[in-house]
Specification:
Layout lengths: L17 E6 L3 H4 E11 L3 H8 L9 E5 L2 E5 L20 E4 L2 H13 L2 E11 L2 E11 L2 H26 L4
Antiparallel strand pairs: 1-6, 2-5, 2-7, 3-4, 4-5, 6-7
GO molecular function, one term: RNA binding
Organism: Tomitella fengzijianii
Keywords: Cytoplasm, RNA-binding
Length: 170
């Protein structure tokens, strides 16, 4: 199999044919995920080229609904290394592409209470950049502690079962 490009390493696609660009690892720790949506992202050419290099950060990103449109704020896509005067602004506001019904439902849910729109991951799907957007509620500190405690207990149980299967005593 011949290499494409000049030594460019591509991340392998997952089982659904998606090549993940960036993930927001803290989102599932800080929020309770109620529902997820797949949204397209309106980008300019140098942004797509920068994303193909695997450069993006979802750390401070969030979405808002303004005038019936969904906007992604705080997403950092660094300037394209080979770009010239056509380069983009790294933290510009980007439009998310969703169906009208989805947008209307999101407007209703975010206005009714303490729900927010958090990006979970950004990936290529069929050559197009997609964003996994979650409707989420912020966790309290004690909820986070309970989750950590539960994961620790599950980890210890699986470790102990593994030891018993191997015949070791702990």
């Amino acid at each position: 199999m011949a290499k494409k490009g000049k030594g460019a390493k591509k991340k392998p696609a997952d089982s659904e044919g998606r090549r993940v660009i960036a993930t927001n690892r803290k989102a599932r720790h800080n929020y309770v995920i109620l529902d997820t949506y797949e949204a397209g992202v309106a980008l300019v050419g140098t942004e797509v080229k920068s994303l193909r290099e695997g450069k993006a950060s979802l750390v401070d990103a969030f979405a808002t609904v303004d005038d019936g449109e969904v906007w992604l704020r705080g997403l950092h896509i660094p300037e394209y290394s080979h770009g010239s005067w056509t380069n983009h602004s790294p933290r510009r506001v980007r439009k998310l592409l969703l169906h009208r019904r989805q947008i209307e439902m999101l407007i209703g849910k975010t206005q009714e209470g303490s729900l927010t729109l958090v990006p979970l991951s950004m990936y290529f799907s069929g050559g197009k950049v997609k964003l996994e957007l979650a409707l989420a509620r912020g966790k309290q500190v004690y909820d986070k502690r309970q989750d950590i405690r539960r994961r620790t207990m599950e980890r210890e149980v699986t470790r102990e079962l593994g030891r018993r299967v191997k015949g070791m005593r702990g």
